[in-house]
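User: Can you help me understand a structure? I only have the sequence.
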Amino acid sequence: MKYELPTKASQEVLSIDAREIEAMLQGPKLAIPAFPECMLKLKDGRTLYIREAKMEEVPAMLSYMEKLMKVEHDFYDIVGSRVYSEILGWKRKRLKDPYTLVGLVDGVWAGFANGRLMNEDINISLHTMALIRGGRIGAAMYYAKAYYGFEIIGNKEWWATYESYNGWLRWGLGMAQPSYPWPDVQHELGGAKVFYVTKKYWDSTVKEYVRQMVGADLDFNVTDEVRKANEKFVVPEEVLV
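Assistant: Let's start by predicting it. Here is the structure, written out as tokens:
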């Protein structure tokens, strides 16, 4: 869009360094503490190792999500599409203050959890997934990222929404999450209803509910043996959902 100039300008054509534009598009980042690696014993006896995802793992993660996009049941196609865009948004710096966690079992990518911070108080939960069956891996990943938000980052509220019936049943109903009035307050995933947990509710009820569902607590004293068993990041060959 061009307007005629209201006064004479010494330079009618200005050049802009794209780096200056990028500074405006990204915006200032919040100081978010890193997620410390942890491990826990799953209900089936396996050990789940949870850590922050690495940028060099993004191509492999995206290739798996491409497969998930083609699964036409239980909303996996839209979940796969959205997670693909969230991982890519993290890589391309088009997601504000994101965190991306992966769970590994003997090096195999078994679980995924991500979200972002709206501000210092509100943590927006995006997606939580189990990539291999058994052991309640999905619950363990959900526990890890909620613990991260409330106990490590220090958030005051946790905002979630649900695409699938099972997700709502397990977390929305299971945790008796209240919701904000809709459409006045909307979650960024499709403008859906916001279900939320406060820090007070987490401390009094939800933390113990999720811990019991997982069957073990997070152990932040990761052994060298577990760390060595998960040195490589291997994507499952099949999509088992």
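Now, to help you interpret it: The chain has one domain: 33-229. The chain has a mean pLDDT of 96. Let me know which part you'd like to focus on.
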